[in-house]
């Protein structure tokens, strides 16, 4: 992924906030371990196509998925969670 982009939370229908990352170690910490800026240097992510429009994410280091946390306001901080069937774990990536 090169250049700038925005992570769109498909469940809430708005942008996700990954500009203020945290560094959790397990599911119990409500925050995000995703580096974001002009690039994703230093963080390896996987993007898996569950369907043509939505992608599941995965942190290569710990296997946890990018998660909105459910019914939260647009622009809320993200967290990471064990991957499952929740729609909170599906994302649309769009160029700005």
Number of strands: 7
In quaternary terms, these chains amount to single chain
Which strand order spans the largest sheet, edge to edge or round the barrel? Answer: 2-1-7-4-3
Biggest sheet character: 5 strands, antiparallel
Instruction: Tell me what portion of residues adopts beta-strand conformation.
Output: 25-35%
Main CATH class: Mainly Beta
Tell me the radius of gyration: 12 Å
Low-confidence spans: 1-5, 19-41
| CATH architecture grouping | Trefoil
Number of H/I helices: 0
Span of the ends, CA to CA = 13 Å
Number of discrete domains: 1
Helical proportion, percent range: under 10%
Order of helices and strands: EEEEEEE
Write up this protein.
With 96 residues, the chain is mostly beta strands. It has one domain: Trefoil (Acidic Fibroblast Growth Factor, subunit A). It contains no helices and seven strands. It is globular. The N terminus is likely disordered.
Describe how the helices and strands are arranged.
Elements: E1 5-9, E2 14-15, E3 45-49, E4 55-59, E5 65-67, E6 79-81, E7 90-95
Antiparallel strand pairs: 1-2, 1-7, 3-4, 4-7, 5-6
Q: Which tags fit this structure?
A:
single chain; 96 residues; mainly beta; Trefoil (Acidic Fibroblast Growth Factor, subunit A); five-stranded antiparallel beta sheet; two-stranded antiparallel sheet; 0% helix; globular; disordered N terminus
């Amino acid at each position: 992924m090169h250049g700038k982009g925005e992570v769109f939370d498909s469940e809430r229908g708005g942008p996700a906030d990954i500009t203020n990352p945290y560094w959790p170690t397990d599911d119990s910490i409500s925050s995000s371990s995703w580096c974001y800026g002009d690039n994703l240097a230093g963080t390896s992510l996987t993007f898996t196509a569950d369907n043509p429009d939505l992608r599941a994410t995965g942190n290569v280091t710990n296997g946890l998925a990018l998660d909105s946390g459910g019914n939260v306001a647009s622009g809320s901080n993200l967290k990471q969670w064990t991957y499952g069937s929740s729609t909170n774990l599906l994302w649309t990536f769009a160029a700005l």
